[in-house]
Amino acid sequence: MNNNDFEAKVRGRPIKFPAVDGLSELELGTIVNQITDEMKKIEEELGVVDTSKVAIIAAYSFAAQLYNLKQKSDLNREADTRKVEEMVSRLETTLGDGD
Fold it and tell me: Averaged over 53-57, what is the pLDDT?
């Protein structure tokens, strides 16, 4: 195990997670708790008990959330760029009027 690896129990099984730059053990523990919670939710909502299937569905759920966040971020970035361009254009127009 690498010195920076993080070990935690997921559903009673000790698992070694690779270190993630910039995240503390507390933050990594929070992530592991989110995984455990998502797996429990999937079992309860879908009635799936196969651990492999639960893990795959949990990974799918997190990937879908990440995809949605990326899409929103991209849209926000585009809107911000348009706003900045509009402000620059107005500023240039205003400064040009002073000549």
Answer: 95
